[in-house]
Design a protein that fits this description.
The chain contains two helices and nine strands. The protein has helices at about 1-30, 35-40; strands at about 30-35, 50-55, 65, 70-75, 80-85, 100-105, 110-120, 135, 145. It has a five-stranded mixed barrel. The protein has a two-stranded antiparallel ribbon with strand order 8-9. It is elongated.
């Protein structure tokens, strides 16, 4: 019985360590998605936590300064200056008018310092105007077929 008791204690310790590691690791990775308008309403809370801010990239705002990229996110007539200095290259879909998410921290001077950028071009994911709802193009024959 003593042998099984030691085994049970060892299993309990391993499980406790695994749970602790999972909880500790997930706490640092939490980021909250906010819009530009919501970020401006957060006040001092915006400076103390890591955030994800979403909006549309303003036309003509993308500027490359060495390894940094500066651009403006727009939403609901509000602008947010974003400085990206991450290690990863910007996504191919990151361009004027694209929807983008910037992950990082807000600075007291009103600049958002991003370490990660995600972008999506809305027109890339829309159905072609010639297709009716419920139809998909037939790649093999070039004709349309219903779902």
């Amino acid at each position: 019985m003593k042998k099984y008791g030691k085994f049970a204690v060892l299993i309990a310790i391993i499980l406790a360590v695994m749970v602790w590691l999972a909880l500790a690791g997930s706490g640092g990775a939490k980021t909250y998605y906010k819009t530009v308008a919501e970020l401006s309403q957060m006040g001092d809370r915006a400076y103390s936590q890591r955030l994800r801010v979403g909006g549309d990239v303003a036309t003509g705002s993308i500027e490359h300064h060495g390894k940094q990229v500066v651009f403006v996110l727009k939403q609901d007539k509000q602008d947010l200056k974003v400085v990206y200095s991450g290690l990863d290259p910007l996504p191919d879909t990151f361009r004027d008018g694209a929807q983008a998410l910037a992950e990082g921290k807000m600075d007291r001077d009103g600049t958002f310092h991003a370490t990660n950028i995600q972008a999506k071009c809305a027109s890339k994911y829309e159905a072609k105007p010639s297709l009716k709802p419920g139809q998909v193009p037939n790649i093999n024959s070039g004709t349309k077929s219903s779902i």
